[in-house]
Automatic annotation (TrEMBL), chain A:
<keyword id="KW-0539">Nucleus</keyword>
<dbReference type="GO" id="GO:0005634">
    <property type="term" value="C:nucleus"/>
</dbReference>
<keyword id="KW-0137">Centromere</keyword>
<protein>
    <recommendedName>
        <fullName>Centromere protein L</fullName>
    </recommendedName>
</protein>
<dbReference type="Pfam" id="PF13092">
    <property type="entry name" value="CENP-L"/>
</dbReference>
<dbReference type="GO" id="GO:0000775">
    <property type="term" value="C:chromosome, centromeric region"/>
</dbReference>
<comment type="similarity">
    <text>Belongs to the CENP-L/IML3 family.</text>
</comment>
<keyword id="KW-0158">Chromosome</keyword>
<dbReference type="InterPro" id="IPR025204">
    <property type="entry name" value="CENP-L"/>
</dbReference>
From TrEMBL, chain B:
<comment type="similarity">
    <text>Belongs to the CENP-N/CHL4 family.</text>
</comment>
<dbReference type="GO" id="GO:0000775">
    <property type="term" value="C:chromosome, centromeric region"/>
</dbReference>
<keyword id="KW-0158">Chromosome</keyword>
<keyword id="KW-0137">Centromere</keyword>
<dbReference type="GO" id="GO:0007059">
    <property type="term" value="P:chromosome segregation"/>
</dbReference>
<dbReference type="GO" id="GO:0005654">
    <property type="term" value="C:nucleoplasm"/>
</dbReference>
<dbReference type="InterPro" id="IPR007902">
    <property type="entry name" value="Chl4/mis15/CENP-N"/>
</dbReference>
<dbReference type="Pfam" id="PF05238">
    <property type="entry name" value="CENP-N"/>
</dbReference>
<protein>
    <recommendedName>
        <fullName>Centromere protein N</fullName>
    </recommendedName>
</protein>
Length: 369, 344
């Protein structure tokens, strides 16, 4: 059964492991890892190479298990669980997304000391090559805290919220928030999280809002401190299609006000096509495709595809433009918006869980083994 | 110079594009040749502006000189703000013989009759365009020179283009325009865009149009270097598609529109006839096309095969009807006439 390709992967993994051992002092040796685990974190891939037999060329943490159906969006009164001020903060900004590999030896109990270290790190990095007055350290303050109540599943690690305050260059002495970001995991894949070696915490979704250099600094501190890796998280059309269908399905319970879809066509100069659908009409179309079957209301990918095809065909009948030649760039309703470049906005706290579950899954799918 | 004039002068000067400043001031003609020579146009903008303002103070310029500069600025930069196109209708017999003096007299008297405080400035450009600047006031307030309306009318044509018109002033301006041009009505042309020139070119068909019988000339002009691998048949198909795209959207440089909006009030046409999604009710929505140059994008879209041929009348209506806002309603069953785009 072992093909040439598999052997190559096998060797590459070994080589990677050696590298890791040089770099990281405390690697979990494969011997410590029980053989029963099917999924594994990259570092210990020696334990059970059979994973690669199953999914050649598809080396992500969730492997072949791209879900083809999911539960319909359910309203969840987050306000009762989470601090309303925090929720307001999450809904105020547009977030840039990234995926994160599991954090090594991250402890929620040590957030205070992380705050101090991250502050020191940012100050130190900023001083590189720049003449800075001694004693301006007070100009920056980082707070790392937990955001309780976002996690929905008992396997999910609590969400970590980071905020950077900085003293404005001119004017008032008060510190102003200049950057914020959070690492979260909502309904993360149970099997995958269970399969992580001890000492690893999975918070695969990273959302940030603020200046790009600060984002880079925070990422680099996390990468050094917890031996993890960040990567950009783009939202492909499948994800955007899911959101369009999930949000439209909410319409009877929570007015979505509009369903807006934007495509960009690769013409010269590029052409944007924005289709705003009446919410009631969109829902009726969705309702005619998706049949609710009792308590376990699951949505199948085929239904999502049919819904989107329905909308695209309707447009095609009018304008004769092949939307498939372009890219679906953005989906938005009053419940939130999601952009192909990996940017989201949360419009409703009640349906935040659905959005974050989907994004957590996207992040896990993008996370390399 | 009073406070108000100085404030307006500063605002306009700040808007002037750096490279054009010298020329604009020369066209304006309120500063003497020596004063212009004294100015150093390589100075940083803020310093230059201060110097210009002091020269204006020197020459004791008044509000009407300042508004003149504003008009020069708009004439030279006809792509600032959003222009709306209007079409005069039901021309009277004398409509074609209205000249500028007549128009000016009548327009001012009609407008001053209904609005007590109004300040009007009018100038005829070389291309027969009459530029009108209106600063509105009402019974109790002086004309507000910070928010003037601009109207551009091409004499002896039914076209008027308007910038910054508040809805409360609409009836006054409409009436003055209709009466002074000897028409009976004025309608919105449902055409808006940032470039006045583009709107004018589109409505007056002043761009390179391609007609079905021009087939041969177009082909000759676009001889592509022959390539042995390209099938002759393919080339012909490609040429036909291009021809079609040019017929619909024009050839060469096309008027620069930014958007086209379609309000769809049609029945759902998504699935096949027996699909569950098909319903009798309307499927409402709004489709907005946007691009830095919409017609060029659409032409490229059609000629590269990103759309099915022939070009749908919905899209070709932009040039055919000279508008970019449409309400698309379901055809009335039984009605013989095809009305793909009808007016609100």
């Amino acid at each position: 059964m072992i093909g040439k390709r598999d052997v190559q992967i096998w060797f590459r993994c070994n080589w990677r492991l050696v590298n890791m051992e040089e770099r990281v002092s405390a690697v979990n040796t494969p011997a410590n890892v029980p053989m029963t685990r099917r999924k594994s974190y990259g570092r210990s891939c020696m334990e059970n190479p059979s994973l690669f037999w199953q999914t050649p060329g598809h080396l992500t943490t969730l492997g072949h298990r791209v879900p083809t159906s999911r539960g319909a969006a359910r309203s969840c009164n987050v306000i009762s669980k989470v601090d309303p001020e925090q929720i307001a903060l999450l809904m105020k900004h547009e977030w840039k997304l990234a995926y994160v590999t599991p954090l090594y030896r991250f402890q929620h109990a040590r957030l205070k000391s992380y705050s101090k270290h991250l502050t020191a790190f940012i100050v130190a990095e900023r001083q590189q090559g720049v003449a800075i007055e001694v004693g301006t350290e007070a100009g920056i303050k980082v707070t790392v805290s937990t955001l309780q109540g976002i996690a929905e599943n008992e396997d999910d690690a609590e969400t970590v919220f980071i905020q950077i305050h900085s003293k404005p260059m001119f004017g008032a002495d008060a510190l102003k928030p200049v950057w914020r970001g959070w690492l979260t995991c909502v309904n993360g894949d149970h099997e995958y999280i269970k399969s992580l070696p001890p000492d690893f915490v999975s918070l695969p979704l990273f959302c940030s809002s603020g200046s790009e250099p600060l984002t880079a600094l925070v990422k680099s501190w996390f990468e050094r401190t917890f031996d993890c890796n960040f990567g950009p998280l783009f939202l492909n059309s499948t994800t955007l299609n899911w959101l369009a269908a999930l949000w439209t399905g909410c319409h009877p319970d929570s007015n979505i006000r509009f369903l807006k879809l934007s495509w960009t066509m690769p013409t010269q100069p590029s052409l944007d096509i924005m289709y705003t659908v009446n919410p009631q009409d969109a829902w009726e179309l969705w309702n005619s495709i998706h049949s609710e079957d009792g308590a376990d209301d699951r949505i199948h990918i085929d239904e999502v595809q049919q819904f989107m095809n329905g909308l695209e065909t309707h447009l095609f009948r009018h304008f004769k433009i092949y939307l498939s030649a372009g890219t679906l760039m953005k989906v938005s309703t009053s419940l939130g918006s999601a952009h192909h470049d990996g940017k989201i906005k949360i419009g409703s706290s009640d349906y935040m869980g659905t959005l974050l579950t989907l994004l957590t899954e996207c992040a896990l799918l993008r996370t390399p083994v | 110079m009073d406070e108000q004039s100085r404030a307006i002068l500063q605002r306009i000067l700040r808007k002037l594009p750096g490279k054009k400043t010298q020329n604009t001031l020369r066209v304006w003609g309120c500063l003497s040749a020596e004063q212009l020579q004294d100015l150093d146009f390589t100075q940083p903008k803020w310093l230059l502006l201060e110097n210009i303002i002091s020269k204006c103070e020197e020459s004791r310029l008044r509000l009407k000189d300042v508004t003149k500069l504003e008009m020069v600025y708009h004439v030279e930069n006809p792509n600032q703000g959003t222009w709306h196109a209007y079409k005069l209708a039901e021309a009277e017999d004398e409509a074609l013989s209205v000249d500028f003096t007549q128009f000016k007299e009548m327009f001012i008297s009609h407008l001053e009759e209904v609005v007590q405080h109004v300040s009007i400035r009018m100038k005829k450009q070389e291309d027969d365009a009459v530029w009108i600047r209106i600063a509105w006031g009402d019974n109790f307030t002086k004309p507000n020179h910070l928010k003037p309306t601009y109207a551009v009318h091409y004499l002896q044509t039914p076209y008027v283009f308007i910038l910054n018109l508040a809805s409360k002033h609409k009836p006054f301006l409409y009436q003055a325009l209709v009466l002074s041009t000897r028409h009976a009505a004025i309608n919105e042309a449902h055409l808006t865009g940032r470039s006045l020139t583009a709107l004018r070119d589109l409505l007056m068909k002043q761009y390179q149009q391609v007609f079905p019988n021009q087939n041969r000339t177009l082909k000759e002009r676009n001889i592509s270097p022959s390539h042995p691998n390209i099938d002759k048949e393919h080339a012909e198909v490609a040429e036909r598609t291009r021809q079609m795209a040019c017929e619909a959207f024009g050839d060469g440089a096309v008027p620069k529109l930014e958007t086209a909006v379609y309000k769809l009030e049609t029945r759902y046409r998504g699935g096949s006839s027996d699909a569950p999604g098909d319903r009798d009710e309307l499927f409402r929505g709004v489709v907005k096309f946007s691009s830095p140059n919409l017609l060029e994008s659409l032409r490229h879209c059609v000629s590269t095969g990103m759309s099915e041929s022939p070009v749908t009348p919905l899209l070709s209506s932009i040039t055919q009807k000279g508008r970019n806002y449409f309400v698309i309603a379901e055809k009335v069953p039984g009605a013989a006439s095809q009305t793909p785009a009808h007016t609100t």
